Amino acid sequence: MALLIADDVHERKLATFIPKKAGCYSACAYVFLAGVERQVEGELGVHQISSDSADLVSAQLSISDIIDLLNRFDTPIEVLTVMFKTPPNDMHVFTPDEVARYGIDRRQGSQTNTASNEASPPSRSAEPPSATTIQSAAPMPKQTDAADSPSLSKLSSIEEYTRRPTRMAVFAGLDLYGDDISSRRTDDAANCARACLSMGGECKAFTFNVDPHVARGPNCFLKASQGKADGNSAAISGKFLSSADPDPNTFSMGVIDPKTALFENVDLPGGDLSRRPFGRNVTAQQCRLACVANKRCIGFTYMKRKSECWLKGTVGTPRFVEGMISGLKKMTTFAPASIITLE
């Protein structure tokens, strides 16, 4: 049955793709290798070709048919060699290095790699097969200048599939700062997300400021990447995920919330991480972010008059001092408030 499916995949010029955390083993590998374009991000496993026939001649003919079919798929000779070396009750899972070295991944028009065969690593146990097939796009366009930024229309079917956003992970209280493409003013976070999606894959994430006191200027910040994470109770952020991306994990980090954890005219005496200020001619925002980025820092005091930043390893009794800004770090856990399907 797997050979019939593989033959159909090849005849239809479909592309095959093994996503991260997925596995394609044994008979499933025939289907994967049939793809006119192939890409392994999960696991691809093979073992010796076997036949259920008790008749030796019939078994040889059956195995011969399989080899002929694999040759028609332009299966790298190194893959066939590994198949014959691996016992039928065992499984060889190709390492990322072997996938690259043997030329298992391919695009339309590319040639199979002919790297020399090397000893295979320890085998792994078989798991239920799974693979994803994708309708192949039209023949690849002519190569463009490397300086041109490729759009999705210029990508191969696998590249388009793996880059196209299919989900959006939304985080409350998380600010993604840096790597801004542009900023604008929108009515709400939903319109900010739409603005990001309208950029044809250039925008990967966004942060929307929900602070009602920000009545003028931009409140929607579009990102070329996910930037650096920072806690901010006035922020809603979204990360766009492709089919190849796993759902984001819950994570924890030290946060000094600029809305709830900054205190005007407050000094945190003593406990300095250094005898000298972290920096001179810095802003209070830069001082806050410096403490967030420093694992030893649990708070800071910023001197407005001197523009000095003092990072704290311990915190004493706060005291009133005019012209000071202090902040305290708090360990905060972030998880997606929701993951929205875009298709």
Describe the secondary structure blueprint for this structure:
Blueprint: H1 2-11, E1 15-18, E2 23-25, H2 27-33, E3 37-40, E4 43-46, H3 56-72, H4 77-85, E5 92-93, H5 96-101, E6 132-134, H6 157-163, E7 165-177, E8 180-184, H7 189-197, E9 205-209, E10 220-223, E11 228-242, E12 251-255, E13 262-267, E14 279-280, H8 284-293, E15 299-303, E16 308-312, E17 319-328, E18 330-334, E19 338-341
Parallel strand pairs: 1-3, 2-4
Antiparallel strand pairs: 1-6, 4-5, 7-11, 7-19, 8-10, 9-10, 9-11, 12-18, 13-17, 14-16, 15-16, 15-17
Helix pairs in contact: 1-2
Instruction: Please tell me how large the radius of gyration is.
Output: 28 Å
What distance separates the N and C termini?
31 Å
Q: Kindly state the mean pLDDT as a whole number? A: 84
Number of strands: 19
Which H/E pattern describes the elements? HEEHEEHHEHEHEEHEEEEEEHEEEEE
Biggest beta sheet summary:
6 strands, antiparallel
Major sheet strand order: 8-10-9-11-7-19
Number of domains: 3
Given the helix and strand composition, which structural class is it? Answer: alpha+beta
